[in-house]
Write a structure and sequence with these properties.
Mean pLDDT: 90
Number of strands: 7
Helix content: 25-40%
Low-confidence stretches: none
Radius of gyration: 16 Å
Number of helices: 6
Largest sheet: 5 strands, antiparallel
Structural class: alpha+beta
Order of helices and strands: HEEHHEHEEHEHE
């Protein structure tokens, strides 16, 4: 459940108009990868530094051509970090670019006040769509599901769980 290459590239082109590079999470046929180019702002620096600190094996070396990667690898998620003032307009531009097969989440970045995090992924990659499919594949469709989440991308999961919870500092 990854973005089609044309959807990923359309989102990337909309993001490119801001002058800020996104972070791509991809599948290259053998492993998950996290690609980035420039550390354009404090939010992105924090995001990448956190991955470096816990030695995230998915983190790839800096990449010069993210658009080429978006066309070559399967894009699971696009993340971009922008000033709050730009978030609404960019979210709308991405939604228009990718169409109905993708979902675009925009939320405040609580780690870097004044900035927002925008996530783009295929609609079927949402947790609320993926979990029932996974349970069905495991012959556990009737399982009693308890969900725990702290972010906007967890809301659809809460909808398919019998019980759900979030910490007080959830985004």
């Amino acid at each position: 459940n990854t973005l089609a290459a044309d959807e990923a590239c359309a989102a990337m082109e909309a993001i490119a108009e801001t002058g800020i590079d996104p972070v791509l999470t991809t599948w290259d046929g053998t492993r998950d990868r996290v690609h980035f180019r420039d550390l354009a702002n404090e939010s992105m620096s924090f995001y990448i530094a956190e991955k470096q600190a816990y030695r995230d094996e998915r983190l790839a070396p800096r990449c010069k051509d993210l658009l080429a990667i978006a066309g070559r690898e399967q894009v699971a998620q696009i993340a971009v970090f922008v000033p709050d003032a730009e978030a609404s307009g960019l979210t709308h531009a991405i939604e228009q670019a990718v169409g109905p097969q993708a979902i675009v989440h925009c939320q405040d970045n609580s780690y870097c006040p004044g900035s927002a995090e925008i996530l783009v992924q295929h609609r079927l990659a949402e947790k609320g769509a993926a979990i029932p499919a996974l349970l069905e594949a495991c012959d556990a469709a009737d399982a009693h599901l308890i969900a725990w989440g702290d972010n906007l991308n967890d809301l659809s999961m809460f909808g398919v769980a019998a019980h759900s919870s979030a910490p007080a500092n959830a985004h």
